[in-house]
Design goal:
The protein contains 18 helices and eight strands. It has a two-stranded antiparallel sheet with strand order 1-2. Strands 3-4 form a two-stranded antiparallel sheet. Helix 4 packs across helix 6, helix 6 packs parallel to helix 12 and helix 10 runs parallel beside helix 12.
Length: about 475
C-alpha cells in the first residue's frame, strides 16, 4: 500500500497515501479503540458548519485568501452534506476534550481543499489543518458549539416526532370516546372510565413533552465560539470574536448568540444537564405509556385483553400463534437507555475541572444518542403501534359488566353503605352489580344506563 510520511509533536509515521485524514487522526485511532463507532453524524455535520462559519469570517476579515476560503468551505460542505462523512473516523469516546474529532475534521477539510486547489493529499502547500482550517479556533470553543448546533437540530426533529405521536393518541381519543372500561388503580379494579379519557391522558403527557423539548433550544442557543482555549479569546483577533457567531447564525439558520461570559460557557456544561433532564422526562412518559399498552393488550384471552395491538412479527420460536407487544417493548428499552444516558451526561458535566471539561465527548455521545433514540422511538411507536391499535369493545363491555368496581359510579345515587351492600351481594352470589341493582330496584334501568355511559364517565363530576 502506498503511503506518505507525516510528522507531529510526537514524531513521524506513515499514512495511507489516499487518506483524507492525517497523522492526528491516525494517532487517535490507535489511542482510543473504545466504543468501536465514530462520533454521532449530526455532531460531525455541525462541526463542518462551524468550520464553514470560521472560514467565512476569516475570509471577510482578510485572514484567508479567496481561493483558500472557497476550497475550505467546499470541503466542509462535503462533510455536512454527507459526501465525506465516512472520513470522520475517530472513536466517539476520546481523551482530550474532543481534540481528536476536531483534528480529524481539520485534516479531512484541509486535504480535500488542497486537492480542490490542485495539490496532493498530505501536502498542505496551500491549506494546512491548523493554520487555515483551524485558524482563530480551538477544540474548546468549536466542540461545544458544534454539540449545541447538533442538539438543537435533533431537538427540532424530536419535537415533530412527539407532536405526531400526540396527534395519533388524540385521534384514538376521538375514535374510542364512546367505549367504557374498568379503570385500575394499584392494578386492582377501580371504577369505570371512558377509553377517550385514557387516550387523552397519554396525549396530554406528550403535549407537555413537546412543549418542554421546544423550550430546550433556549438553553442551547448561547455558544462560546470565539473564546478559543479558555474563553479569553487568546490568539484570536477581536474582530473575529465579535463576527464569527453572527456568521454562524447565517450558516446554520439558527438563533445562536455569543455568550456574554465566554469563560463560563467554555468550562460549564450545566445547560446540557438541563436538556438531558427534559429528555429523561420524555423517556419516562414513553416508558409509562408503552408499559400501559403492554398491560392492556396482555393475554389476550388470559390477560387484560382490552387493547388490540398491530401484529408486526411472530412472537415465539416455539409457541405457534403467539404475538408479542414488541414495539412497546422496544420503546421501553429506548427509554431505559435515555435514562442511563442522562446519568452519563450528569457525571460528565460534574467532572469538568477548572477552565475546561475534558469529558465532553462522553456527554456529547450520550446526549445526542438520547435525542436520536427518542425521535426513533416516538416514530416507530406511532407508525408501528398506536396508529394501528384498536379497542376490543366486547371485552370492555364484559369486564364492566362483571366487575364490582362499577358500584363506584353509583355512589351518588346509592350512598356508601348501600353501595357496599350491593358489592358484597354481587361477590357472594357471583352475580353482577348491575343485576343486583336492577333486582332490588335501587335505580331505574334508564338511569342506570346513563350512569354507566361514556358521557357520564367523562363528565367532570355529577349533576
Amino acid at each position: 500500500m502506498a503511503t506518505r510520511r507525516e510528522a507531529d509533536l510526537i514524531g513521524e509515521r506513515d499514512i495511507p497515501e489516499d487518506a483524507l485524514s492525517g497523522i492526528h487522526t491516525a494517532r487517535a485511532r490507535e489511542n482510543f479503540p473504545l466504543s468501536g463507532r465514530p462520533a454521532h453524524p449530526e455532531l460531525v455535520k455541525a462541526y463542518a458548519l462551524v468550520k464553514i462559519a470560521a472560514a467565512k469570517t476569516n475570509h471577510r476579515l482578510g485572514f484567508l485568501a479567496d481561493d483558500v476560503a472557497e476550497a475550505i468551505i467546499r470541503a466542509a460542505r462535503e462533510i455536512e452534506d454527507g459526501t465525506l462523512l465516512s472520513e470522520i473516523i475517530v472513536d466517539a469516546l476520546q481523551g482530550g476534550a474532543g481534540t481528536s474529532l476536531n483534528m480529524n475534521v481539520n485534516e479531512v477539510i484541509a486535504n480535500r481543499a488542497e486537492e480542490l486547489l490542485g495539490g496532493r493529499r498530505g501536502q498542505h502547500a496551500r491549506v494546512h489543518p491548523n493554520d487555515h482550517v483551524n485558524l482563530n479556533q480551538s477544540t474548546n470553543d468549536t466542540f461545544p458549539t458544534a454539540l449545541k448546533i447538533a442538539a438543537i437540530r435533533l431537538l427540532h426533529r424530536l419535537e415533530k416526532a412527539i407532536a405526531d405521536l400526540q396527534v395519533a393518541f388524540q385521534e384514538k381519543e376521538r375514535t374510542w370516546s364512546g367505549v367504557v372500561k374498568i379503570a385500575r388503580t394499584e392494578l386492582q379494579d377501580a371504577c369505570p372510565i371512558a377509553y377517550g379519557a385514557v387516550f387523552s391522558a397519554w396525549a396530554e403527557a406528550l403535549s407537555r413533552d413537546r412543549w418542554r423539548v421546544f423550550k430546550c433550544e433556549e438553553r442551547l442557543r448561547v455558544v462560546n465560539l470565539g473564546g478559543t482555549a479558555v474563553g479569553t479569546a487568546i490568539a484570536a483577533p477581536r474582530d473575529y470574536v465579535f463576527m464569527v457567531t453572527e456568521v454562524l447564525r447565517e450558516v446554520t439558520g439558527l438563533g445562536l448568540a455569543r455568550a456574554e461570559n465566554l469563560v463560563d460557557a467554555t468550562q460549564n456544561a450545566d445547560a446540557f444537564v438541563e436538556v438531558s433532564g427534559i429528555l429523561k422526562a420524555n423517556a419516562v412518559n414513553l416508558f409509562k405509556i408503552s408499559s400501559d399498552l403492554r398491560l392492556l393488550s396482555s393475554g389476550p384471552q388470559a390477560g387484560f385483553g382490552e387493547i388490540l395491538l398491530p401484529a408486526v412479527q411472530a412472537g415465539s420460536s416455539i409457541m405457534p400463534g403467539k404475538v408479542n407487544p414488541v414495539i412497546p417493548e422496544a420503546v421501553g428499552q429506548a427509554a431505559m437507555r435515555v435514562m442511563g444516558n442522562d446519568q452519563m451526561v450528569t457525571l460528565a458535566a460534574q467532572n469538568g475541572q477548572l477552565e475546561l471539561n475534558a469529558f465532553l465527548p462522553l456527554l456529547a455521545d450520550a446526549l445526542l444518542d438520547s435525542l436520536s433514540l427518542l425521535e426513533a422511538a416516538s416514530t416507530i411507536f406511532r407508525t408501528r403501534c398506536v396508529e394501528g391499535l384498536s379497542v376490543d369493545e366486547a371485552a370492555c363491555r364484559r369486564q364492566v359488566g362483571d366487575s364490582r368496581a362499577v358500584v363506584t359510579a353509583l355512589l351518588p345515587r346509592l350512598g356508601y353503605e348501600t353501595a357496599t351492600e350491593v358489592a358484597i351481594a354481587a361477590r357472594d352470589s357471583a352475580r353482577s352489580v348491575i343485576e343486583i341493582v336492577l333486582e332490588r330496584k335501587l335505580i331505574e334501568p334508564a338511569d342506570l344506563e346513563h350512569l354507566l355511559s361514556a358521557n357520564a364517565m367523562t363528565a367532570l363530576g355529577t349533576k
